[in-house]
């Protein structure tokens, strides 16, 4: 009677379609590069690696390219895209602002400072090959703690305090990164930092970093889906959330911890990739409506597909040179956002 | 039954509510009236726990509010607040379904029962035709009715409303309050309009500066001699066909008549 059943079937169809789309995009993405491999072969190589099934019709180098080089990268891309999208959804609900994105809390600026310290001054050398992501994660952790403490200053974490604290910490750490680049005096180092800041999936390997990313991002998507109804209430207003049995302050703190951890991990693994976390939540809402139980999983799949697509473009456009993926997502995302704003204006007069 | 004893709240140094005691009895509608700034909304927020008083205590059906989990509290008290939620992209049906939240566990989704309850509540406020519309696109009056439907969907044992007749035209002012009266649940309503209070409330609490000026059955509290000094306006009371009506006129200070 309320049309809820129709919406649920619609969402189920979208989820199925997007999951199939993600699989297809993944296979194509693994197959694309200097050595082109057909999606069918890619699927068979992966199947063979996982279960030992199928006859080997491919060369060992092909197998190495698929399994050792490209697959981890594609998996990381999916995870980062999904993570950015759902963190964007959560933050837009938390601060009730459609322009909120995962970097609103200054976490990426913290990670940048950490990364700059690692690249320019060898910080975190004790962590060996993981020096860069570890140092970036420590920076992200410091930034989120700082934001939390400032926002908590008045005893309650309100959306306005959170926004202001995020912006303040973000600018302060941005200045720190710039100062580190300036102080190092190394043009090559500055270029590396710049490249990292614009985002790249080239750090992907079968290693602990990928496992941690899978665990944290998977957990975040699951958690945000489960608390979808509470997110709906919080997105309407603090007072409403309270009267519907959700303590807005405590819930916001829980969300803050989980989102900070997730953004910290994905920024450490891939740099700050913009626009995905801002645009995908809007797209997901257009497809399946506003309730977060539906928006979160749809946004996760959409984000994963979008980031994979952007990574393929980044790899092939100026091949063999790789373009920072953040440039592609921004180029794709900005016009998209403008279209959304026009639609918003046409339908709601905003 | 909601009982508050000796609750206080201050914004900065000046107390808005100072050691106030009120009781909302089962099956009756309690009206909170008083001029602007007398703390009606603040008192209501103390009653549903959005504000925690440092003194006294609030109990709901004998359970102290501070010891209830937020979900338990939401099953005992449904609240229609003045917050509009105008930016949300939820549809009206989804908004009303949010009222089922306190009854669902974390992993539960809304089921057929919940959808039926939501549909019934929309019908009760005369808003069935709005179900598929975006909530943000409604007029003020339509929004108010949808929010009341959400509160009804909460199926709580108490209903609290903060100026529910705001933004409503005269017909819906009466329809909504008649609906609230007809529920038979213990209700607390913040009202500006004293004639609506006269018609639809069993008991009234009149708030003035800092606290309760008068409390009791509506007919006793709505006494011109009690009201005039609090509101600073001249009042005539008429009893027409068993209904109480108040007429208002400015008090002329110069003594030259009007």
Content of β-strand of chain A: under 5%
In the predicted model, the low-confidence regions of chain B spanning at least 5 consecutive residues are none
So, CATH architecture of chain A?
Orthogonal Bundle
The number of helices of chain B is: 9
What's the alpha carbon Rg of chain A, rounded to whole Å?
21 Å
The SSE order of chain B reads: EEEHEEHEHHHEHEHEEHHEE
Give the end-to-end Cα distance of chain B, rounded to a whole number of Å. 46 Å
CATH-defined topology of chain A: ABC transporter involved in vitamin B12 uptake, BtuC
Counted by DSSP, the helix tally of chain A is 14
Q: How would you classify the helix and strand content of chain A by structural class? A: mainly alpha
What's the mean pLDDT score of chain A?
88
Percent helix among the residues of chain A? over 70%
Strand order of the largest sheet of chain B: 6-7-8-3-9-10
The count of strands of chain B amounts to: 12
Strand content of chain B: 25-35%
Helix share, percent of chain B:
25-40%
CATH class of chain A: Mainly Alpha
**What separation lies between the terminal Cα atoms of chain A?**
30 Å
Domain ABC transporter (chain B): 2-234
GO molecular function (chain B): ATP binding; ATP hydrolysis activity
Keywords (chain B): ATP-binding, Nucleotide-binding, Transport
Pfam family, one (chain B): ABC_tran
